[in-house]
Amino acid sequence: MFGPVLLAASRSDRMRRVVAAAPVTRPVVNRFVAGDALHPALDRVRALTTGGLDVTLDHLGEDVTDRATAHATRDAYLRLLETLREEKLGARAEVSVKLSAFGQALPDGGHDIALEGVRQVAELATSIGTTVTLDMEDHTTVDSTLAILRELRPAHPNTGAVLQSYLFRTEDDARALAVDGSRVRLVKGAYKEPASVAYQDRREVDKAYVRALRILFEGDGYPMVGSHDPRMIAIAQDLAARNHRAAGSYEFQMLYGIRTAEQRRLADEGERMRVYVPYGADWYGYFMRRLAERPANLAFFLRSFAPS
Ligand code: FAD
């Protein structure tokens, strides 16, 4: 019931100012965001990687409307990758990028500006032995994001993409991407999408997730199972067994701070488990999507306003 309202609020500048200014917000945000800046987040990353988990780091930001901020996003990722090189974390840490933070929606040549920015990031990632995954945002960006993936893959074949099972088009996209060397993170989808392009019923989204999962596991690519849902995880493990996939020929991914015991359990079972670690000051949109996904998170947030 609150999900659509929170997703609409996630793109409201007025709500952003209200939520960010509330003194009680920060401790709740810290549950989902690893730090305001790279260095505190790196302490969390080290704790995860020494515990046998892999990570993908997200420098928070999205919906950039000017070139200077788009370039600042690129520079933040270049600094992040230099730090991963210095800290010798390249084997366990990759990066996830939102192309809207690289200027994808800018009116004059946004697609090309985002492509050039992310190309530089992919070049540095390749040189330190790691990879970039292109997060997927709302449905209006899918064609541009997949076109950028196609541009990057000849020089950087390990560049990853994200597909969202709530979109009607995803089975076709999964078939096209289930090819040798291709890395695809399958998620259910976190944006507010119209009924003309996306399933609205959670059961339909789940069924579509299983269909796309099957395509990816039967194909030649590298499936990345981005879900906290125990049923989807069990089905993925079953598909891995049926398709004779060894551990390490696919992976599980979950978000920082969510179902951490399950993250540990899967890693202890010998599965490759990667944690998506967001950091940075621009946490508002990411945080609101996490509240929208689960009413209990909203209740936790609202309880933090109550006098103790
Ligand atoms: P649900 O059915 O939503 O949840 C299953 C169970 O997981 C819940 O019962 C609960 O126990 C737990 N859970 C789920 N969400 C939360 C939460 N917020 N807080 C606490 N518990 C929770 N979406 C995109 O649109 N684009 C992306 O690029 C993208 N990247 C992602 C990367 C990763 C690694 C992951 C894990 C998710 C990503 N998502 C992305 C979000 C995704 O689309 C879903 O919104 C989110 O994962 C919730 O769906 P679920 O599969 O976990 O299943």
Automatic annotation (TrEMBL):
Keywords, ordered alphabetically: FAD, Flavoprotein, Nucleotide-binding, Oxidoreductase, Proline metabolism
Name the EC number(s).
Answer: 1.5.5.2
Top enzyme class: oxidoreductase
Q: Which residues form the Proline dehydrogenase domain?
A: 41-300
The residues the entry assigns to the signal sequence are none
The record lists the catalysed reaction(s) as:
L-proline + a quinone = (S)-1-pyrroline-5-carboxylate + a quinol + H(+)
Its pathway, per UniProt, is: Amino-acid degradation; L-proline degradation into L-glutamate; L-glutamate from L-proline: step 1/2
Which cofactor is recorded for it?
A: FAD
Pfam families noted in UniProt = Pro_dh
Please state what the protein is called: proline dehydrogenase
Q: Which organism is it from?
A: Actinacidiphila polyblastidii
